[in-house]
Amino acid sequence: MSTPPRTLNEIFFGAMDRSASRPVAMRVKRGGTWVGTSFAELLSQVQAFSIGLHELGVNAGDRLAILSENRPEWAVTDFACLACRCADVPVYPTLPAHQIEYILRDSGAVAVCCSSAAQLGKILEIRGNLPALKTIVVFDGDAATGGAVTFESVLAKGRAAIPKYPTWRADALAVKPDDLATLIYTSGTTGDPKGVMLTHGNITSDVMAGLQVLDLRQSDECLSFLPLSHIFERMAGHYCMTQQGAIINYATSIESVPIEMGELRPTVVCSVPRLYEKIYARVLENAMAGSPTKQKIFLWAKRIGEAWAELAIEGKPIPAALGFKYRIGHKLVFSKLVARVGGRLRFFVSGGAPLAADIARFFYAAGLPIMEGYGLTETSPVITVNGFGRARFGTVGKVVPGVEVKIAADGEILTRGPNVMKGYYNKPEATAEVLSPDGWFSTGDIGKLDADGYLWITDRKKDIIVTAGGKNIAPQPIENLVKTNSFVLSAVMIGDKRKYPIMLVVPNMETLRKWAEAEGMTGRTDAALLGDIVVHNKLTGEIKKTLRELAQYEMPKKFLILDRDFSIEAGELTPTLKVKRRVVEKIHQARIEELYAAGGVETVY
Asked: Does 581 have pLDDT greater than 80?
């Protein structure tokens, strides 16, 4: 039996050797056609680009930034950096120039690889403030201006210089597990972002632990659309796929995912809960828009499927009558959802935020299990995961091999293991705040471990609402519950140090318009609908119905209906689509204060 890899370079070269003759390692759509790159081509490009970077003056120990959407060049650049034994600094392409400037300056990046003219424009705007930055590479060849060199020219330079580097592979494999692999800047919901130092050993240990739990195969194909700048997609959709020799398909954009799922028919998809919430809401919306008979069939199949799922996931016997009904329900209802995601999907992976148990149960019933995991950038990221044969709805699974978890006296989740970061770059005080001398990392999340070892996440420690009356409310589970209603797109609950909580709600306008038309409210603008007291009462009634099981102190007493969804551009979402609660509250502060000042508990638009 071969020795497991200890570094990312061992993962890369091992995978290239095992799959040397295979025709497709990754695909991307160019000119409307899916174009593949073989494993041999990938290895050749990584060698050439790595040597090309050396020739441009990028050396071991340097930092190189990657400012790009998901595409093959991102993967080539990452593996080439690792082969150079320098650390890369992934940067979200959605960030504005001034935030990119902070990351490049703080990391001391000597080079940056950017995808397009738009991303290059940001770099040229801030270049004068970055004295360490010597080299700019642009992936799109026709975008190279302002002294930038093209990706292809670096490849050509590297190929020409290959004879000068006869020990290139051996030098790359000389990297140590404790060597820095990447510097990932957290999204910084408060204050400046911090650079998380992850080593080769951190990430490699997490990849190998995750693969012991997830049934990922060489025959699998994934669709990559979460930002590779985020450690979740990078670990699960990049390094895990590479280690197993699975094919990586790069989605054109997040908007194109539904179409490209149908085109590529992936077997594995990694996403944040927002995608599953939207799919679930769309399925409910379509079902409820059908005839009364179709509605009854859907609700019957959903009820039967969820009863079946509760038994199946625990490995309990399925009564013959229930199994028979489930097969009928699957054929009539769930098979349509399976077809919509391509027909070949074996499982989804979810991370980055909590997934509502109702959604996990529904997808499982459809034969589309969602393997929900939990972790942070600082933990490479996976701490726990609901893997095959060990999942439990509402939890984030069991601790992966080699990692420890314990719950502090105040309920905070603490973790220790080979996946925990080296520290925050140039921030020893911030590191000491979260990393104890004996290696325990404070996650900032509140949770509990049940008797069977499953981890339940309650909320972010800093998000817990403590009302003026001293009641503790965890907002995330309540928000997730609200988002299962087809009338709701997004929801944020606030109320810290207030007499009672209120909820900011973004309605699903497609569902709302259809309901309004059925009620005879035709030809109205969205603004007119949202201003109508009848519509408002329908929305708040739907929300209250969804939350009817809450304790009285947990129930939002007022609702602020918003006319647009939260966005990255407005600063309300992180690049991985997590809501920045404090930003949302600040943006809508005036209207929030009006609600509280009005007194009473009536809902107000």
From this structure: yes
Q: Report the run of H or E that residue 448 belongs to, with start and end.
A: strand 441-449
Find residue 271's DSSP bridge partners: 350
Q: Is the pTM of this model over 0.85?
A: yes
Domain with residue 312: its CATH number is: 3.40.50.12780
pLDDT digits (tens, 9 = 90+) for 473-495: 888 889 988 998 989 999 999 99
Same domain as 201, residue 291: no
* Cβ proximity of 268 and 255 under 8 Å: no
Tokens of 576: 């991985």
**CA separation for the pair 197, 179 (Å, rounded):** 10
Tell me: do 195 and 313 sit in the same domain.
no
Report the CATH number that the domain containing residue 573 is assigned in CATH. 3.30.300.30
> Cβ neighbours of residue 158 under 8 Å, at least 6 residues apart?
47, 48, 49, 50, 51, 52, 53, 54, 55
Cα dihedral angle (327, 313, 279, 231), rounded to 10 degrees?
A: -150
Domain boundary among 421, 436, 461: 461
Q: Is the pLDDT of residue 8 over 50?
A: yes
Q: Which neighbouring-strand residues pair with 457?
A: 447
Say whether 513 sits in a helix, a strand or coil. helix
Rounded to whole angstroms, the Cα distance separating 354 from 597 reads 32
Range of the structural domain that residue 428 is part of: 272-461
User: Over the stretch 122-136, which tens digit does the pLDDT of each residue have?
Assistant: 999 999 999 999 999
Confidence of residue 189 (pLDDT cuts 50, 70, 90): very low
Query: How many separate domains does the chain show?
Result: 3
Residue 556 and residue 443 share a domain: no
In 3D, which of 551, 563, 573, 444 has the Cα closest to residue 501? 551
User: Helix 357-365 vs helix 273-288: angle between axes, to the nearest 10 degrees?
Assistant: 70
Same domain as 425, residue 498: no
**Number of residues in the chain:** 605
CB 542 within 8 A of CB 288: no
Last residue of one domain, picked from the residues 208, 243, 261:
208
CA distances from 89 to 53, 63, 185 (A): 15, 7, 8
Summarised one tens digit per residue, pLDDT across range 194-213 is 999 999 999 999 999 999 99
Q: How distant, in Å, are the alpha carbons of 42, 218, 402, 448, 584 from that of 15?
A: 11, 10, 23, 38, 44
**Mean per-residue pLDDT of the chain:** 93
H/E segment holding residue 328 = helix 320-329
Contacts of residue 38, Cβ cutoff 8 Å, sequence gap at least 6: 22, 23, 24, 25
| DSSP secondary structure code for residue 408 in this structure | -
Amino acid at 399: V
User: What is the C-alpha separation between 151 and 139, in angstroms, rounded?
Assistant: 5
With a pLDDT cut of 70, the percent of the chain lying above it is 98
Phi, psi for 379 (deg, rounded to 5): -115, 15
User: Where is mean pLDDT largest: 172-176, 353-357, 477-481, 509-513?
Assistant: 172-176
Residues 302, 200 within the same domain: no
Question: How confident is the model over 46-71, as a mean pLDDT?
Answer: 97
CB 424 within 8 A of CB 194: yes
Phi then psi for 600, rounded to 5 degrees?
Answer: 70, -175
